[in-house]
Amino acid sequence: MIIGIGLDVVETAQIGRLLGGTGPRIEEKVFTAAERDECEGRVDREQALAARFAAKEACLKALGTGLSQGISFLQVEVVSAESGAPVLRLNGRAAERARDQGVQRVHVSLSHQPGIAAAAVILEG
Fold it and tell me: Considering the entire predicted model, what is its pTM?
């Protein structure tokens, strides 16, 4: 049974401005160390981070919370499976909210091309 669906589209330049304008502090508030490490050195770093930002937003929409109820961007983490496929890992209040809603599986799809990134999240119970 589908418990929640979230979709988000982000302009890559918007993330570039966010990261460039305020330095590493904002990056540390939005992206986990693992996410930053995984994207470091990538030619498409800005696009990869934009896709992860979109995934976080999409997940918060699927949970029905946004950035409220004690949930932050750092509680939604995009990691890579051995196959390279993206996986969402929830922790803290985001994980509690998912458990409370009966979420058993989290599905995520990322997409990006020059100028735009998108993500879809489906919460399954």
Answer: 0.92
